[in-house]
Specification:
single chain, about 190 residues, alpha+beta, Aminopeptidase, 5 helices, binds coenzyme A
Length: about 190
Amino acid sequence: MALPTIQTSRLSLRPLAEHNRDDIIDLDSDPKVVKYVHSGRPLTREEAIQDHQERLSACRQIPGLGYWAGYLDDTFIGWAALSPLQSNGGTFHAQKAEIGYRILPRFWRRGYAKEMARELLRYGFEELGLEAVIGQTMAINEASRATMKACGMQHVRTLYVEFEDPIPGSEDGEVEYAITREEWLELQLHSK
Ligand SMILES: CC(C)(COP(=O)(O)OP(=O)(O)OC[C@H]1O[C@@H](n2cnc3c(N)ncnc32)[C@H](O)[C@@H]1OP(=O)(O)O)[C@@H](O)C(=O)NCCC(=O)NCCS
């Protein structure tokens, strides 16, 4: 199943494609964007290209799951994902996915991350029949936490992971947020 193009009120979410390579290089080379991801430093062009290829291959694992490039008219603003989750045994969950997003700083704080994430939750629960969606971020990443919270996701646990080259703030841990299909349906009832 090819990923569909998804429309939000202001954005068009188009399946991430090979031609987004330069968009991803722009995102991954921006220090503000990578402050709390990867190793906390801008990626080189080669690293960003590899990152892009890994995302494209993630889009081929579970039908309907993957990465979308967000466009305001025809301008790329960033990406959002419902990506496949691997269990400890290495197999992919068919009914559980991980939400994620990354936006160019000039488009921050206009509600775009929330808009993309809310629509991907709707798509995941209504159209893919997912059972749950989780999201992880560094505890100090307030913007990412607020985005998950604004979508009705709740903090479920904090993980403390040892890194070889830790990003400042990683001592506060990694937080996991989650929402089940039942919780999402309940929220829809109350938002009508
Ligand atoms: C996280 C990110 C996608 C948020 O994008 P955004 O479009 O600015 O977010 P929105 O405008 O939709 O805001 C969503 C919520 O986060 C809050 N928020 C946004 N930036 C914030 C910040 N710097 N500090 C605190 N809250 C913030 C908003 O107020 C809003 O919450 P509300 O609805 O309760 O008011 C963006 O900051 C980003 O790309 N960061 C770098 C990449 C990254 O860290 N991704 C997540 C990795 S797990």
